Amino acid sequence: MDVRVNPGGISISLPKPPRPMPWVEALSQALHVPQSHVRHLLRQGAVRVRGSAPGHLEMWDRPTQVWIDEKLHPVDVAPATLPPVQVFYNDSSLLVVDKPANLLVHSDGSGAPTLDACVQRFLNEEGAGRAYHVHRLDRGTTGCVLYAKHGLMLRAMDAELAAGRVRRTYLAVACGARIRPGVVSAPIGRDRHVSGRYRVSRTGKAAHTHVDVLDEAIQGGVRWTLVRLRLETGRRHQIRVHLSAMGAPVVGDTLYGGAPHPALPPGQLALHAARLQFCHPYTGEDVEVHAPLPPAWEALVAAVGLSLDCLKRE
């Protein structure tokens, strides 16, 4: 299946199906969106097959060109100075970029620059597309962020994320108690006493984090740990809350008890979205993207006696 994003919509070249099927079922399967959404598009007159709206009884039984209306022309972005975006993966419908520290993913109303704006500027230069982030990172966290370029792909990737088929792997430097490898299963809810803070709570939502200890060191009388973490669920601040609850908060994470470190720029956390893995809904390709560690990590691990050699061997 070939998908092209244009300023006025999406052009899709469908191959011959294994069996004839109605258009609602055909587009739902091909685009990985619910049949209810396909019906909505058909009612809106947003779908054209070989140049005309498909009838309810019409069948998909041969190679076909489909057009779906969606406004994807370039749009203005905030005039604030935006950093260039570093792209790790790019195709007609998906984009994976690197989020630097101290950059919001989306606007908080303050007018500060955002990663969304940086990506939209990049898509404007491509000529078409919308910057729809599929997931988010906290302001002080760095690494991979996945974007959809149009609404159909956003719906498809939202479903993949909800089903746990988007694998997100992080690296962190934590300080405090000994961290034991395994799966942390502790529900997370809002902290009623501190705005914007979360905590382990029996009444919270289920949260599961896979933890692997890569290196440990005792420096300055405290324990420092390099950990790899994989999210099974995606609760807000999940890794930060779980490590804090273990008595080993992320370095730099003052909201959850972590101390700042002079090797890290102010506001940066020692938490990095290092790897993103997913199966592309349209092509079936297994995509794996890696984000290199920020430069400050080299100085941080050296200062606390940790080593990154285990990562270099992978």
TrEMBL record:
Top-level taxonomic group: Bacteria
Catalysed reaction, written as an equation: a uridine in RNA = a pseudouridine in RNA
GO-annotated biological processes: enzyme-directed rRNA pseudouridine synthesis
GO molecular function term, any single one: catalytic activity, acting on RNA
UniProt feature coiled coil, ranges: none
Pfam family, one: PseudoU_synth_2
Domain Pseudouridine synthase RsuA/RluA-like: 94-245
PANTHER family (alphabetical): MITOCHONDRIAL RNA PSEUDOURIDINE SYNTHASE, RNA PSEUDOURIDYLATE SYNTHASE DOMAIN-CONTAINING PROTEIN 1
Family in the record: Belongs to the pseudouridine synthase RluA family.
Protein's name according to its UniProt entry: RNA pseudouridylate synthase
Gene: rluD
